[in-house]
Amino acid sequence: MGPIVLKDQKGVVLIIAILMLLVLTLIGISSISSSFFETKITGNERFGTAAYYAAKGGVDVGINRLPDTTAYSGQIGDETYRSGNMASSSPQPLTDLGLMARGGFDKSWEFRRYQINATGSSFGAADEVEVQISYGPFGANTQYNN
Q1: Using CA atoms, how far apart are residues 108 and 142, in angstroms rounded to an integer?
Q2: Where are the chain's structural domains?
Q3: Which is higher by pLDDT, 25 or 110?
Q4: CA 104, CA 51: separation in Å to the nearest integer?
Q5: What is the pTM of this model?
Q6: Distance between alpha carbon 45 and the CA centroid of its chain, in Å?
Q7: d(CA 15, CA 12)
Q8: Closest residue by Cα to residue 85 from 121, 40, 119
Q9: How much of the chain exceeds pLDDT 70, in percent?
């Protein structure tokens, strides 16, 4: 007996073409979905970065205000900043951590140490920056150390 030859093969090509189109459609939908999520992730990262820089700007404002430790807030473009950490909902005063010694200075010089927390926000994203700085030198027992 010889090889079996299918004489009616006209529908096979159509079925193969439909299956290939189905596979290509699924690949296309997957690519679109992936692109959509990547765009959202990139946008969230951008807002998070803007919130970080707003918080960093808030720290800079706090440093420029020293030795004043009162609470503050402000805006840089669309981003906002305020003194205090993310757990608090309103601006908090800076923390005066008291006197500290620094190498290379004798007892006639003093430094004050401060902690500055600043929170920045941008379109729902928030970030916090915390720094501790020494402020001085000042002559010991001067008005700056009170």
Answers
A1: 10
A2: 15-145
A3: 25
A4: 38
A5: 0.71
A6: 7
A7: 5
A8: 119
A9: 90
